[in-house]
Structures are given as C-alpha cells and as structure tokens.
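In this supplementary section we document a worked example of the pipeline. Step one takes a protein sequence of length 171 as its only input; no multiple sequence alignment statistics are reported here. Step two produces a three-dimensional model, which step three serialises into structure tokens for compact storage. The input and output of this example are shown verbatim.
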Amino acid sequence: MQGKIIAFSAPSGAGKTTIVHRLMEQIPELSFSISACTRDKRGRTEANGKDYYFISVQEFQEKIRHDEFVEWEEVYEGAFYGTLKSEIERIWESGKHAILDVDVKGGLSIKEFYKDRALAIFVKPRPWRFWKSACAPALLIQLLVFQPVSTKPTSNSPSRTGLMSQSLTTT
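The serialised model returned by step three reads:
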C-alpha cells in the first residue's frame, strides 16, 4: 500500500484538531503526524514525540538548512513550527496514512510537495451558533465518515470529504 497524506487546515478555533482526532478514532489506518516546534512544553501533560517534537531554534534552523521539512513557518519571532519529512516516512513505513493539522500555507506546501499522494482540506469556520449545539461533533463525523458520496459530483451536491475514503483505497 502506498501511503497518503490528509492535511487539514483552518483558522485557529475552527475545529480542525477535533476533526482529526475524531477521524483517527473512526479510521484505524490513519496516524497523526507529529509536528516539530521550538516552543516550550505547556503544562505537565505535553510530551516530546507525542504532542510535538520539541527542539531548539538552532536545531530547527539546522533542519531547515538540510531540507528536512515538508513545510515550516516562523509563527512569531523565534517560534518555529513544521512537518518533518521523516515523520511522514515513519507513518508510511508503519503501513498507515498520515493525517495532520497545519495552517493554510502548510497545507498548500504539503499538497504541492506530495502532489496526488496528498489531500489538502480547508475547514471553513461555522458561525458560533452552530458550534454551541451539543450535537455538532456527532453531526460532523456523520458528514465526514458515514455520508454516502457520489463519485460524480453535481453542481447542487457539495463535495464531501467522504471522497477521502475513496482516495485512500486507490493507489
């Protein structure tokens, strides 16, 4: 099986991390791509190699020089985040597909680098009143995972990420 990448991007707070975690609960063939960053761990619960690869600014810049990132960004001065090529390879070597949440620029970079092996999905934020509903997460999973999808989209039927399931099975 040839590995694929699903990159979710959205503005902060739009729900991309929630979507990614729910999809991983439903689809065991997915594995989360752990990003590298230069910030300190937050609290006692974050762990290196689980939440992020916590590295120094110098180490991050060295990896940039050696072209080890698929995408990276200096979010704030001295605060770098990025996706390591080795992390994607690690996931593929385990026989799974990589799923990740990145900013919009990162999603586009991943799609450009991996071409047909990557699916970049932008999560459009919903109005606040939608997210206040207790059923919204369940509804979202229903739309993403269980909604039957036609392989021939029509002008009045929106494209759904259910096409993702189809693209994961084709090589």
